[in-house]
């Protein structure tokens, strides 16, 4: 292993695997290592034996759950926005060649103690049980404005320049109630908290348009999910990287990260052998002194034998419980998949509940979600730290990714990939547009 590389990547989490793929395709010589004997790191998908080994000290799984190989249970719940940046990354790197996807059947939001489908346009807004008659009219006008808004044509603005007015101004203009603001801001725009309300409306407008376009792409919901679990994603990016010369080593202990006298990284030592590179990319667990804990996330992986009540017996759903609906500072997310997605035995469902910890009794914070799930056959609960890098990495060329947050979608992961790519390369990541990707597909 005593060789020189352009980049060394530590950890096979999704963020690291995406960057490895991007840099390999661009011609960089990449060495990618992980202390685990499986891909995925924090976002791996485990079979039953691995789940019970991790959460139950190696106890045997009940025979009633079926065959071990029928399970690929995600440790972290994430869905992909059909028209979002993450799917563009997959398509840009042609990683979709290694994967199969299935649509998530429904997108729901919690309001006043029950769940309803998230309306994504003026037609659905008129039919939605989330709003009364007069509020539906106001929401219809709001969605019409979102759909027709063109930054180049002031005639479409209705006096609202989204680069200057805040979302509070927009909500006030249309007279939308706080409950309507909740599902627009949290279930459609996917904001993590309410700080967006006082910021320019441009970002939120773009997020709502993305949600709407993702809905239009497949119908039913804006989300898709890979068959056999999220653990397939890091492996797919790894295959793409290897095709362009990337070297992968699993089950390799990292002894240390090495530096020169000026404090710049020079490589790593693994099991007594050095490898050299002027750039190291890694998750926080490999360089704990370069990351700081900013929050805790609780995740509860629940096995069910029934679909989620009041979701039309859907085989998969996302449910967002906005913070204001349950008197919290952060949202609660529920991601549900089933045997239809090749992640559990027939007749079973996997529901993963997650939120940012706010009290000294974290699992009690999940009570509103548990009430929606119905009977839980078994559950695996974890509380993990959310870590972020203490520096941008440009001083020593060690670039650290962020931990995965509580959200059940990939948009925040994409933000971290864009940020890391720019810090590593000094340039913005330019993904192909949907039009360019479509033209590329037709040529092939």
Automatic annotation (TrEMBL):
Superkingdom to which the source organism belongs: Eukaryota
Pfam families referenced in this protein's UniProt entry, alphabetically: GDI
Gene Ontology biological process terms from the UniProt entry: protein transport; small GTPase-mediated signal transduction; vesicle-mediated transport
GO cellular component, one term: cytoplasm
A molecular function GO annotation: Rab GDP-dissociation inhibitor activity
SUPFAM superfamilies linked to this entry: FAD-linked reductases, C-terminal domain, FAD/NAD(P)-binding domain
TM helices/strands, residue ranges: none
The family this protein is said to belong to: Belongs to the Rab GDI family.
PANTHER family noted in UniProt: RAB GDP DISSOCIATION INHIBITOR, RAB GDP-DISSOCIATION INHIBITOR
Protein known as: Rab GDP dissociation inhibitor
Organism: Allomyces macrogynus (strain ATCC 38327) (Allomyces javanicus var. macrogynus)
């Amino acid at each position: 292993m005593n060789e020189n590389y352009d980049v060394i990547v530590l950890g096979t989490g999704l963020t690291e695997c995406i960057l490895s793929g991007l840099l390999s395709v661009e011609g960089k010589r990449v060495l990618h290592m992980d202390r685990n004997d499986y891909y995925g790191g924090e976002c791996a998908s485990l079979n039953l034996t691995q789940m019970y080994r991790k959460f139950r000290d190696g106890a045997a799984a009940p025979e009633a759950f079926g065959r071990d190989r029928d399970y690929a249970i995600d440790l972290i719940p994430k869905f992909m926005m059909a028209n979002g940046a993450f799917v563009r990354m997959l398509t840009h790197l042609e990683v979709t060649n290694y994967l199969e996807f299935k649509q998530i059947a429904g997108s729901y939001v919690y309001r006043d103690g029950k769940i309803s489908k998230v309306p994504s346009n003026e037609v659905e807004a008129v039919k939605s049980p989330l709003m009364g008659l007069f509020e539906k009219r106001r929401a219809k006008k709001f969605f019409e404005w979102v759909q027709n808004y063109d930054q180049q044509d002031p005639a479409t603005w209705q006096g609202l320049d989204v680069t200057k007015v805040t979302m509070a101004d927009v909500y006030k203009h249309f007279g939308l109630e706080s409950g309507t603001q909740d599902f627009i801001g949290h279930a459609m725009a996917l904001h993590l908290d309410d700080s967006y309300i006082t910021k320019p409306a441009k970002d939120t407008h773009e997020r709502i348009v993305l949600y709407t376009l993702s809905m239009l792409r497949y119908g039913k919901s804006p989300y898709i999910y890979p068959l056999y679990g999220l653990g397939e994603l890091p492996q797919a990016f790894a295959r793409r990287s290897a095709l362009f010369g990337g070297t992968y080593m699993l089950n390799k202990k990292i002894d240390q990260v090495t530096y020169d006298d000026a404090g710049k990284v020079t490589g790593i030592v693994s099991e007594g052998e050095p490898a050299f590179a002027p750039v190291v990319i890694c998750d926080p667990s490999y360089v704990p002194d370069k990351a700081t804990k900013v929050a805790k996330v609780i995740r509860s992986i629940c096995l069910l034998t029934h679909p989620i009540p009041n979701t039309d017996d859907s085989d998969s759903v996302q449910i967002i419980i906005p913070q204001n609906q349950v008197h919290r500072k952060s949202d609660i997310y529920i991601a549900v998949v089933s045997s239809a997605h090749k992640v559990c035995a027939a007749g079973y469902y996997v529901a993963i509940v997650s939120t940012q910890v706010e009290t000294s009794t974290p699992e009690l914070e999940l009570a509103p979600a548990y009430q929606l799930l119905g009977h839980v056959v078994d559950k695996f609960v974890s509380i993990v730290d959310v870590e972020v890098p203490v520096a941008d990495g440009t001083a020593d060329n060690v670039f650290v990714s962020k931990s995965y947050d509580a959200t059940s979608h990939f948009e925040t992961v994409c933000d971290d990939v864009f940020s890391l790519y720019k810090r590593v390369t000094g340039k913005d990541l330019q993904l192909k547009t949907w039009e360019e990707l479509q033209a590329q597909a037709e040529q092939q």
